Amino acid sequence: MAKTKSIFRCTNCGTTYPKWAGQCRSCKAWQSLEEDVVSGSGAPSRSAVPLSPALPIGQVDAQAAQARSTGVSELDRVLGGGMVPGAVVLLAGEPGIGKSTLLLDVAAKAAERVRASSGGTVLYLTGEESASQVRLRAERIGALDPGLLLAAENDLSRALGHIEAHAPALVVVDSVQTLASPTEEGSPGGVTQVRAVAGALIAVAKQRNIPVLLVGHVTKSGNIAGPRVLEHLVDVVLHFEGDRHTRLRLLRAVKNRYGPTDEVGCFELADRGILGLEDPSGLFLSQTSQSVPGTCVTVTLEGRRPMPTEVQALVAKTSAGSPRRTTSGVDSSRVAMILAVLQARLGVDLSSCDVYASTVGGARTAEPAADLALAMSIVSAASDAAPKERLVAIGEVSLTGEVRQTVGIERRLAEAQRLGFAFAIVPRGALDGLRIPAGMTVRGVGDLSEAARLALPGITPGSAAAEHSSSGR
Question: What distance in Å separates the CA atoms of residue 36 and residue 156, rounded to the nearest whole number?
């Protein structure tokens, strides 16, 4: 009989300790150590016969690792073309964000495709809801395919029995934290159980060449619940994110052994389920056709995808001793930095004014390329002057007031031209070798003062801001 012993493992970084401690010395996380029971047996005393011989790398069959479409184009974009046979994908996200709805739709589309081609099936294992609850959701989103098999299980051995009995073409497990192995100690969702469950499912996926989609819970800090080793074991880690008050959902790849990690999938949460958005441009722009003071449009990059985003600012006189700085969708620290640069380099003094900065449509941007648009919207609001019509501003602002170059200028300008923007302000250094889209005027600027003169013709930023502050508008 192999001896067992207890160790304490950090759920954040995986570091082990012989005794419990309040803080992990490696990652400095508090209350992150959980007890883990391990076997005390040593390494094998003799070698074993390999299951398959080693081959020259040129003779290894590469067709087995070809990606196959899931039927959801936005998910295929993020995965790098589709699911690879034997791959294990972990999808994490906040509660209620739509993980189960997305994967149920993926399972139904995969079942329809498999049934039509080979007569196979897709297995959906749910441990959080009953089978009838999942059936009602499937009816609502139109996912009632006869090739989709549904089972409610919390026991790992019975879940593996379903996989062995049906030999499905795809397995969806919702979620990995609800399954428990009868041979391991601890409650479902604990370090020991999650590692055992994930290890068993990964072994089945590799042995049978079955792609597996796992749903993972997240903690309050946004990290995937369970041991950190779970993210190392799986092949792909996806994060499903979005604001509860908006219908837009973004799917990002944090880890991908078979494709890129710089792609983003866009989805819309609708009454009939989660729908892929192949062209999300325009979601973050206001519907008015005329320029309004305090607005400016920029183009950010979500992965490789350009996303036009409108930045709005409002400047209001205040009698309070400490003026307010309120932001929504933009980084508050960058807003504070830009306000300081505007005051020091352009003379725009807003120390006696409340400043509100926001994006349209619930967009979130922390990219430095949005600095110039944010600065122009603040200057426009302070001077109460509308910027040029069909204007887009792209560039990073430094502490010296310089407009610095950013990546992907050509892609950003091409997307702006496609949406009807005719005038663009970019860093002067980006003009070298730049291919300007047809029908678009592009001007390079070196600092904020030059950018303000182009974006707000006839307005002197410093004097306009001083007038705004003294008049109390």
Answer: 19
Residue 109 among known ligand-binding residues: no
Measured CA to CA, the distance from residue 47 to residue 37 in angstroms comes to 26
Q: For the CA atoms of the chain, what is the radius of gyration?
A: 27
**CA distance readout (Å), 96 to 4, 136, 141, 272, 411:** 39, 16, 16, 15, 34
401 is in an annotated binding site: no
Dmax over CA atoms of the chain, in Å, equals 88
Average pLDDT across each block of 10 residues of the chain; the chain has 473 residues. List them in order.
Answer: 71 80 85 74 63 84 82 92 93 90 94 90 93 94 94 94 94 92 82 87 93 87 71 92 82 90 87 84 77 92 88 92 92 95 93 93 88 96 92 96 94 93 94 92 95 84 49 44
- Residue pair 136/106 in contact (Cβ under 8 Å)? The answer is no
Q: What is the pLDDT of residues 86-110, one digit of tens each?
A: 999 999 988 888 999 999 999 999 9
The answer to whether 188 is annotated as binding is no
In whole angstroms, how far apart are CA 344 and each of 205, 256, 296, 316, 448?
A: 60, 45, 22, 20, 11
CA distance 80 to 260: 6
Q: Is 93 annotated as a binding residue?
A: yes
Q: Quick count: other Cβ atoms within 10 Å of Cβ 307?
A: 23
Does 95 carry a binding-site annotation? yes
- Check the annotation: does 94 bind a ligand: yes
Apex 256 CA angle, 252 and 262, nearest 5: 45
Residue 217 pairs in a beta bridge with: none
198, 218 contact by CB (below 8 A): no
The three-point CA angle 343-344-349 to 5° equals 20
DSSP single-letter state for residue 437: P
Q: Which residues contact 374 (CB under 8 A, 6 or more apart)?
A: 296, 298, 311, 313, 330, 334, 335, 338, 357
Q: Which of 264, 242, 459 is nearest to 364 (CA)?
A: 242
**Contacts made by residues 57-66, CB under 8 angstroms, sequence distance 24+:** 64/209, 65/258
**Strand spans (E) along 230-349:** 236-241, 248-256, 264-270, 273-276, 295-302, 305-317, 325-328
Residues in CB range of 12: below 8 A, 6 or more apart: 24, 27, 29, 32, 223, 228
Residue 395 annotated as binding? no
Rounded to 5 degrees, what angle do the CA atoms 244, 248, 254 make?
90
Helices (DSSP H) in 96-208: which residue ranges?
A: 99-117, 131-141, 156-166, 191-208
Tokens of 64: 């087995």
